[in-house]
Design brief:
The chain is of the alpha/beta class. It has one domain (38-384): Alkaline Phosphatase, subunit A (3-Layer(aba) Sandwich), CATH 3.40.720. Helices cover 27% and strands 18% of the residues. The protein is built from 14 helices and 18 strands. It has a 10-stranded mixed β-sheet, sandwiched between helices. A 4-stranded antiparallel β-sheet has the order 15-16-17-18, with helices on one face. The chain has a two-stranded antiparallel ribbon with strand order 1-2. Helix 6 runs parallel beside helix 9 (264-294). The longest helix is centred in the middle third of the chain and has 31 residues, at 264-294. The N and C termini lie far apart (48 Å). 50% of the residues are buried.
Length: 494
């Protein structure tokens, strides 16, 4: 099924349709597997700062070259409305692992803060259930280069990592140095294939593959540097009403970025490079799927691909980065290959990053711990008519919690999103709230919070937000005078 011109040359992968394979396997609903079926292998692939639409098959950037991800979108399960509950790398990744909101697991900033060790992660629970578990790539929480509980195999680079000449820390306390000149994404892909190829008998495995790409600095593989060379990012000149109705900090950020040499003037020429970095990620998806097929594992392996948060490309008058509750920041790609369910499927209901953990645990026959805020998305694969009605988004002003400050222009905020509405509130009282009619205004151009005609809807969404905070037993993180919070201050010596 998966063909490539040459694995060694890393030419762009091309794929044959899944149809022949689909004809050879028995598609069943989740939970209807035959009793003698083996526990499924699970591969989770995560990227850094990949927007929901940075896959060619999604349609917004059809000129991108992502044939293997396109194949998963078109022939697997595509969760069209997937979101993070905090659009920041460290908090989002901790939510994937723990199935909880950031205010519960404790990773509220991109700093050397670890998740609450009393919260069992899905890899730890799978390990206890008999899985051989492996982590490869970017951790981006506390103790980046130390093996974490729940993983038998550990290969992690420090912090953000480097696209070339990086060094990994291993589970055996040894170091692994990349070959000079080798591209990091290629290294991660090769290490992933090596892990899959390990002989482990009938023992099921979990592989957590965590990419640096497409994080800044946007550095593509040398073989991809000429892709999209004629592409120019279109100007995103939103109506003046967009900025006029936004909180002051949004207006200030957007206007600053418009003319700042380090803002949009620098970002726009680099966006093609950002997308070029994803081509090597896509090559790796093809390598992984081909390896699974060659080993006869494709019919018993679930592959899930996701991004850790979105990314602005000058929306809302000139924004870049993430760290806000707008759609470009909080929407992510989630696609899945699951041979145990009917495919292809397009799931319209909202799913969250913190839904990953309970979904994987259910597939492996492991009970979901009571502390997890997420809910399994597996029932949606049988019936997409009933899903969550809304979800909480939270972000915490990093200069209040980081020892070194950081991004003080984005205040602490809470938001509640339903299918058709979004409400944003600033609990510290610094800014007036925001209200958007997503059905009529999907680009969130017009803040309706001050419009008297929408006072009832404003009150209704505020009540929904309060109810959600109460439902998760919300406790605000403790601010440290002068900013800065440490692991010990959060959790003592855990």
């Amino acid at each position: 099924m998966f063909k490539t011109n040459s694995l060694k040359s890393r030419s762009t992968f091309y794929l044959l349709p899944f149809l022949a394979f689909l004809c050879c396997i028995k598609c069943t609903s989740v939970g209807a597997q035959e009793s003698e079926s083996k526990l499924p292998n699970i591969i989770f692939i995560i990227t850094d700062d990949q927007r929901f639409d940075e896959i060619a098959a999604v349609g917004n950037f059809p000129w991108m070259q992502t044939p293997n991800l396109d194949n998963l979108v078109n022939n697997g399960v595509h969760f069209k409305n997937a979101f993070v509950t905090t659009s920041l790398c460290g908090p989002s990744r901790a939510s994937f692992l723990t199935g909880t909101y950031a205010s519960r697991h404790g990773v509220i900033v991109n700093e050397h803060v670890d998740y609450d060790q009393e919260l069992p992660t899905f890899p730890l629970l799978l390990q206890e259930a008999g899985y051989h578990t492996g982590f490869i790539g970017k951790w981006h929480q506390a103790m980046h280069n130390r093996p974490r509980p729940g993983f038998d195999h550990w290969m992690c680079f420090w912090g953000q990592g480097k696209y070339f000449n990086d060094v990994f820390k291993m589970h055996n306390d040894q170091e692994y140095k990349m070959e000079a000149g080798k591209y990091l994404t290629d290294e991660l892909n090769d290490l992933a294939v090596s892990f899959i190829n390990e002989e482990r008998g009938d023992q099921p495995f979990l592989l957590y593959l965590s990419h640096k790409a497409p994080h800044q600095p946007f550095t593509p593989a040398p073989r991809h540097r000429q892709l999209y060379r004629d592409f120019k990012i279109p100007s995103q000149d939103n109506p003046e009403d967009d900025l006029a109705s936004k909180p002051a900090y949004v207006r200030e950020s957007a206007l600053k970025n418009r003319n700042n040499p380090t803002g949009l003037a620098r970002l726009h020429p680099q966006i093609p490079n950002k997308m070029r970095t994803l081509t090597a990620v896509d090559d790796g998806v093809g390598m992984i799927m081909e390896t699974l097929e060659e080993k006869g594992l494709l019919d018993n392996t679930i592959v899930i691909f996701a991004g850790d948060n979105g990314y602005f490309m000058s929306e809302h008058g000139g924004l870049h980065d993430k760290r806000k509750a707008y759609e470009a920041s909080i929407r992510i790609p989630i696609v899945m290959w699951n041979p145990m369910v009917q495919q292809p499927q397009k799931i319209e209901n909202m799913v969250l990053n913190l839904d990953l953990a309970p979904s994987i645990l259910e597939l492996a026959g492991v009970a979901t711990p009571e502390h997890m805020h997420g809910q399994s998305w597996n029932p949606l694969l049988d019936d997409d008519s009933n899903g969550r009605s809304g979800f909480l988004y939270e972000y915490y002003k990093e200069s209040d919690y980081r020892p070194r400050g950081g991004f003080p222009n984005t205040p602490t905020l809470h938001a509640y999103r339903t299918k058709d509405w979004k409400f944003v509130r600033y609990p510290d009282g610094d800014y007036e709230s925001e209200l958007y009619d997503l059905a009529e205004d999907p680009e969130e151009l017009y803040n309706l919070a001050k419009k008297s005609d929408y006072s009832d809807q404003h009150a209704k969404m505020a009540a929904k937000l309060d109810a959600q905070l109460e439902a998760i037993d919300y406790t605000p993180p403790v601010k440290i005078p002068g900013g800065g919070i440490t692991h010990n201050q959060l959790y003592g010596n855990n």
